[in-house]
């Protein structure tokens, strides 16, 4: 990596994260840090997950551009200059696209479905959201905070705040060491995380628009149903040709009442969510400034 960046006149700041490994990873990191001044290492007390490892790396990074890579040797450092070129051309996030993947079919298939779903729901249409080989402008992470397993959605979160997202094709090598932790459980978690991201990017600042809309729909459907049943009840007693109905014998009568109650509860929940959003608003502002003219305070 040092050699690759040296060819283009850049000096790397390499941060290696040991996410609670049980092998000799930390001993290797210590050896590399002692041998190369450009290498630093961080070791977690236990396994905290990839998002936590990336967050620690972003916090420790000193450069204006941060490139992330997995340590399984499937990503090729020779691609880094192409990432930097894309960033220099005006993009803020550049994601790698492993167009030719050397992974088993049971990993590639679900990944393609997942990427399609992410593109459809969020509008960020890149081919490989799961690819860990990415480049970012450092200041993005002053606004985008990682937790859980949200690391794969950084391009989506950045796009929602107005940062420019792109992708480049990257070389993907077969895995030579270790085992992939990909499994069925990750598919389920990925789908739930996608729902979370959809909510955060669309309704984080206006939860009533989502919860309240569902509540209003239930309330209106239940109210319309009760109005129809009430009219039917009245007509059946005014017109002899129509059989008299008894509302307590109609299951739909109870469904309408449940719909009204559910709608009212959702509306109240939406209002409470709006109050909590207003009272517990985070320090990160709900906007992102690209540039400003002279005359503004540096702290602004």
UniProtKB/TrEMBL annotation:
Any one GO BP annotation for this protein: lipopolysaccharide biosynthetic process
KW Translocase (keyword) present: no
> Does this entry carry the keyword Metal-binding?
no
- The membrane-spanning stretches of this chain are 208-232, 252-273
Q: Domain Glycosyltransferase 2-like: where?
A: 13-143
Enzyme class (EC, first level): transferase
Question: What are the EC numbers?
Answer: 2.4.2.53
Q: Which GO terms describe its molecular function?
A: undecaprenyl-phosphate 4-deoxy-4-formamido-L-arabinose transferase activity
Write down any Gene Ontology CC term.
plasma membrane
UniProt keywords, alphabetically: Cell membrane, Glycosyltransferase, Lipopolysaccharide biosynthesis, Membrane, Transferase, Transmembrane, Transmembrane helix
Q: What is this protein called?
A: Undecaprenyl-phosphate 4-deoxy-4-formamido-L-arabinose transferase
Per the UniProt record, the source organism is Roseimaritima ulvae
Q: Which gene encodes it?
A: arnC_2
